[in-house]
Design a protein that fits this description.
InterPro entries: HCF244-like, NAD(P)-bd_dom, NAD(P)-bd_dom_sf. One of its GO terms (cellular component) is photosystem II. The chain is an alpha/beta fold. The protein has a domain at 2-141 and 174-199 and 263-278: Rossmann fold, CATH 3.40.50.720. It is built from 12 helices and 11 strands. Helix 1 packs across helix 7 (175-185). It is globular, with a radius of gyration of 19 Å. The relative contact order is 0.13.
Length: 291
């Protein structure tokens, strides 16, 4: 039995879909107010719970062989990115789980103090590594599925917005590939107790993304670049009346100000370990939105 948290999220729903296509018994941890009908129709066992409640985490881990932690924070980094994962690790160990797969973020180890999410992911990585559980940590770069709404807007308008330096490099990774790797990691001996940066096959400058969309949709890009100081000004203004939102924007600021890409050697390591070829952003966008 696989337990998948964040089962209705960008990566989680793909993990559940691929597991069920392979007829693997799968428990999908979902919120009551989430859209989980498709997971249920695919034959997943639906576990309705709250990741901020330890009793729900303990119950979800019963009878499980593999855990894949794929949930996000929803703006609650301490409660969900950190505490929920710590308790998930503890209860997985207590239940004798064979392998724990944690989906972290590329650059978690860099010490970005402005991002609660990055800090939480790094602390969970360290806790998992010292837990005694067999584990695999995946550190994906930017997810291609997160760009689909921007691609749809580009398709309709040709407009694309960049916050920060358009020369900054990235390795946009197929969300389907991340899901497949997470599943394989649970049973791949070469992945045991290792950390893998996971990126797409190309190192792209951010200004190249609208050019890719332009090829997919056959239209000229209208790219607008917003300098970081404008984001900083907005954050500062928000901080006067909503300090929590100001903090949550720290992750956006971190992502906008820095480069997140995988080297050719890192991509080759993933492809070799998991016996697969990584999909390009152009291919992913064409599959989902191309005509």
């Amino acid at each position: 039995m696989f337990l998948v948290t964040g089962a209705t999220g960008q990566i989680g729903k793909r993990i559940v879909r691929f597991l069920r296509e392979d007829e693997q018994p799968t428990r999908a941890f979902v919120r009551l107010d989430s859209n989980y009908r498709d997971l249920e129709q695919r034959g997943a066992e639906i576990f309705i719970g709250d990741l901020t409640l330890e009793k729900d985490i303990a119950k979800a881990c019963e009878g499980v062989r593999y855990v894949i932690s794929a949930h996000g924070s929803g703006g609650k980094a301490q409660a969900l990115d950190y505490r929920a994962n710590i308790e998930l690790i503890d209860h997985a160990k207590a239940q004798g789980v064979e392998h724990f797969v944690f989906i972290s973020v590329l650059g978690a180890q860099r010490g970005y103090e402005d991002s609660p999410t990055f800090k939480a992911k790094r602390e969970v990585e360290k806790y998992l590594q010292s837990s005694g559980l067999n584990y695999t940590i995946l550190q994906p770069a930017g997810l291609a599925s997160n760009l689909l709404p921007l691609a749809e807007r580009f398709r309709d308008t040709g407009f694309y917005l960049i916050i920060g330096d358009p020369q900054n490099r990235t390795s946009i990774v197929s969300s389907d590939d991340v899901a497949k790797i997470a599943i394989k990691a649970a049973t791949t001996e070469e992945a045991k107790n290792k950390t893998f940066p996971v990126g797409g096959p190309e190192i792209l400058k951010r200004e190249e993304i609208p050019e890719i969309f332009g090829r997919v949709f056959n239209r000229e890009p209208l790219t607008v670049t917003v300098p970081l100081f404008l984001l900083d000004t907005v954050r500062e203004g928000i901080g006067f009346f909503d300090p929590q939102t100001q903090k949550s924007l720290g992750t956006l600021r971190t992502l906008s100000a820095n480069e997140f890409f995988c080297t050719e050697a890192e991509v080759n390591q993933v492809e070799t370990t998991f016996n697969m070829k990584m999909e390009s952003l152009e291919s992913f966008t064409t599959r989902y939105l191309g005509t």
